[in-house]
Specification:
- There is one protein chain.
- Helices cover about 65% and strands about 0% of the residues.
- By secondary structure, the protein is mainly α.
- The protein is globular, with a radius of gyration of 16 Å.
- The mean pLDDT is about 90.
Length: about 180
């Protein structure tokens, strides 16, 4: 009879903050890495590939205690050892993590996964990455994910037009690094 009001996702929060011109006031708490154990992450990944609906919640739970950047190399070692990796499922997982989760570290992990499929062919993922990039928490990972695309200048301009000074500084710093 009564629907339980669901908690907004990180993506929804960013879009709402942009709409309300309060993007600069939005901040996320820093996650302290509990450890570099990826067993629960692997379980969530395998559950996703087995079509378990709880897998996205498992990712969310895992990333409340783990930073995406700290565990990425271990996860990549695991991924490279998978004999057959379904690219389409990886695309779907990446989009779900960026769009439908409540942990900002989970969103970052979804952005980083976009480096492992042809992003230029996935317009939905591109839109989400550009939308997330307007917040400084996600801008560096987002710029890195899109920097080699032929439409990068257009995407960058869209991000910079919609974002604040901190995102501009991050883009300038990454641009200087690219020039070296």
């Amino acid at each position: 009879m009564f629907k339980k009001k669901k908690k907004p996702t990180v993506y929804e929060i960013i879009l709402e903050s942009e709409e309300n011109n309060s993007l600069g006031e939005l901040s996320f708490h820093r996650v302290e890495n509990a450890d570099e154990n990826i067993e629960d992450l692997i379980k969530a990944f395998e559950d996703f590939y087995d079509r378990d609906k709880k897998s996205i919640e498992e990712f969310d739970t895992y990333f409340t205690k783990h930073r995406a950047h700290d565990i990425m190399n271990k996860f990549l070692n695991y991924m490279y050892n998978i004999e057959i990796l379904n690219d389409q499922k990886l695309v779907g997982l990446s989009i779900l993590l960026m769009r439908d989760t409540h942990s900002h570290e989970c969103v970052k992990f979804g952005i980083m996964l976009s480096n492992f499929y042809p992003l230029i062919n996935v317009r939905g993922a591109l839109k989400i990455i550009v939308d997330l990039a307007i917040h400084e928490e996600f801008s560096e990972d987002s710029f890195k994910a899109i920097e080699n695309l032929p439409i990068y200048p257009v995407l960058r301009d869209n991000i910079l037009r919609r974002s604040g000074e901190e995102v501009h500084r991050i883009e300038e710093r990454l641009n200087e690094i690219r020039k070296k």
